């Protein structure tokens, strides 16, 4: 039976691989899988300016303007960037017709522009939520209580936008206060590019410990550095690679130097996906110290590569839900001492490390982007075929 061909728009102010995060990766992986059966467009900033590129992996880019800086001088996500993107996004969505719009909820303001454009063009709108902060805005913006309140209200109001709401985890759905029985709710999850990981080589210059992520304050890479410092006293001090970039990188590099970690810690910056997988396949441990994660795709990617995840516990992080403690990963408290103890626990018993590693690989095999793409496609088709969608 032929599948109806849809015009699908993924709306997000970040684009993979120019920016490498879970949300960008999700849109890219879905887009390249759906492009074979549908017309897929990424509506974003013009990350391809001057490249001559028209499409990538079957999906095209519809630019709204020149990219703006994501972060202010204080390392916080820029409100000006979100407003600028929303302002340029709205007329673009009015001029171009789609059958379905899938908009990332973060950073919220563009979602309101998407909602208004979708109502005016009678286009079904799906909203994808990677996390929900709620009262945590006050902690993120100390000293700026009015901005924190506005952010909280904007986020809360955005929950009502869209014909279907697609949190990437049950954890995020609970944080949003969504009714599990709501017909608007679809928990989608994220996948793993198993074939791509299998094709990646094992890095020759191996680092025993790896971290992958944006270098921002809430990722708490300083806890990892403290853990590595504590492990340096061992006769075979482990080496650690930190993959990623961001506003916190200069501070972290200074901190590593002050701790005397220059010989054992490498800041690798952004790596291509195959290079990142090569490092994870060569590593023994992947550390996720973040205070806040709506999912943490890198934890599952690490499992697929055979790097045992050491994940910190946290009330605002979905990452602990991705592993079973001491079965296919390790859960620890959010301190440098606890992370170091977890790594030492794995290093002290190689057979135990191998057992957990094998279980981690098996767990990751249960996830695949092809299966996630099929589920998302089913939601899109049901929205387009539902009478009354996008008319309220």
Taking pLDDT < 50 over at least 5 consecutive residues as the criterion, the unreliable ranges are none
Q: Whole-number average pLDDT?
A: 93
Strand order of the largest sheet: 3-4-2-1-5-6-7
Shape: globular
Counting DSSP E segments of at least 2 residues, the number of strands comes to 13
| Order of secondary-structure elements | EHEEEHEHEHHEHHEHEHEHEHEEHHH
Oligomeric state of the chains present here = single chain
SS field, number of helical segments: 14
Portion in beta strands: 5-15%
- What's the N-to-C terminus distance? 31 Å
How much helical structure, as a percent, in the residues? 40-55%
Sheet having the most strands: 7 strands, mixed
Rg, nearest Å: 21 Å
**Computed structural class:** alpha/beta
What does this protein structure show overall?
The chain is α/β, with parallel strands linked by helices and 392 residues long. The protein contains 14 helices and 13 strands. Helix content is 40%, strand content 15%. The strands form two sheets. Strands 3-4-2-1-5-6-7 form a seven-stranded mixed beta sheet, sandwiched between helices. Helix 2 (79-95) packs parallel to helix 3 (109-121), helix 8 packs across helix 12 and helix 11 (297-305) packs across helix 13. The longest helix is centred in the first third of the chain and has 17 residues, at 79-95. The mean pLDDT is 93.
